[in-house]
Each structure stands twice: as C-alpha cells, then as structure tokens.
Amino acid sequence: MLKYIVFLTVICCYSAFADVSAKEKQSVKDELLALENQLKHIYKSTLENIDKDVSIRTEEARKRSGNKGVECAAKLGHDLIVEAEEKAREACVGFIESCRNLREMIEKDAMNQMELNQTRKMLRDDGLFKQQVNRTVTAVNEYISKKTLQFQSQVKQC
C-alpha cells in the first residue's frame, strides 16, 4: 500500500512539474512571438513612413517644377525606398528568423530547461538578445532618418 501511495505521489508531482514546464515553454514561445510581431511591425511601419514621405515630397516637387520635378523626386524616392528596405530587412529579418527558430525548437522539445531559462533571460529588456535587437533597430532608424533628411534636401533642388 505504501509503495502504491509513493508511486501516486511521484506521478502527481511529475504531472505538476510537467505542467509548469509546459507553461514555461508557452510563456517563452509567447515572448518570442511578441518580439517577432514587434519586429514585423517595425519593418512594415518604417517602409510605410518612408513611402508616405516620398509621396509627399514628390507631390511638392510636382507643384514646384511640374513633370521634371516629379521625375527627379521619384528617382530619388525610389533610391531611398530601396536602400531603406534593404537596411530594415537586414535589421529585422535575421531577428525574426531567430525568434521563429527558437519557437520551433521549443515546440519540438529540442530545448532543455537550462536552455529555456537562458532564452528567457536573453528576452528580458536587459537580456543580450533584446539589447542586440534594440541596438540594431536604433542604428537602422538613425541611418534611415539621416538618409530621409538627405532625400528631403535633394528633392528641394528638383
């Protein structure tokens, strides 16, 4: 009888720990998905903002200089959009893929408890992964802002 009680206790404890582990896994997966969605939003909104700015500046050039101004502004705008898209992709896509790969590893139970804890630490605001994401996105935003100001200055000459 005592063996039976011990056996049931072990099974109950194991089930409780398995649930906690499943909850931890889901929590980390949710954090990864949230970061992935945030990066997708940053990528998309960056390109949308640049596209809007190019449209506004092209329209201003049309009012100032007619078709010749439009052609000049459109060319400069196209170059800016291509360059910004490339930089934003470089900044975001790698991190998005990393998030996706880590989630897949968790889903396939390819990550032990220690690795799961390390992943959770990396995802905190002061964690290495999050810091790297923030630094990269900030650097790209600064670069794109500089290029956008340069574009705005050049369009005035169209």
How would you characterize this protein structure?
The chain is mainly alpha-helical and 158 residues long. It has one domain. It contains 3 helices and no strands. It has helices at 2-107, 113-123, 128-155. Helix 1 crosses helix 2 and helix 1 (2-107) packs parallel to helix 3 (128-155). The radius of gyration is 25 Å and the shape is elongated. The chain starts with a helix and ends with a helix. Residues 1-20 have low confidence and may be disordered.
Task: Please outline what is shown here.
The chain is mostly helical and 158 residues long. 92% of the residues lie in helices and 0% in strands. It has one domain.
Counted by DSSP, the helix tally is: 3
Shape: elongated
Which class of secondary structure composition applies to the elements? mainly alpha
Pattern of helices and strands = HHH
How many strands, what sense, and barrel or not for the largest sheet? none
Can you give the helix content as a percent range?
over 70%
